[in-house]
Amino acid sequence: MSYEQPGTRPRTVVLSLIAGLVLGAAGMGAAWAMNADSASPVAGGTPTADARAACEALDGFAPEKYTAKGPAGEVALNRFAAAGALSASAAAGDAKYKELAQTIRRSQDRHAQVFDFDAAVKKDLDQAREICRAL
Length: 135
Known about the structure:
- It is a single chain.
- With 135 residues, the protein is mostly helical.
- It is built from six helices and no strands.
- 21% of the residues are buried.
């Protein structure tokens, strides 16, 4: 019959747990890296990807739903905000996206002043969409 030395069992358990965590994290990291889609805007992390994402957010934005109650209003509000943030990120990374960012920002600033999607706001949104089509 063999006997363990005092104190070796807890140390063995702790070392096994640490080894399991390290191997699990490495496995998850490897799986994540292999499944990363380099074509997705998030994976790209480039100004171009940010500009495209801003345009996608703007494309899905419907001003008439901005004041709607519930999910439709939340979607509109968040897409309008996301278009501004992503276009600003794109412009910060590459000056060729400055016009897109300025146009979206101008529409957001005007909207914040009048609390409505008036002709000036809609004109800037249309201009931003034109810029997006050219990307």
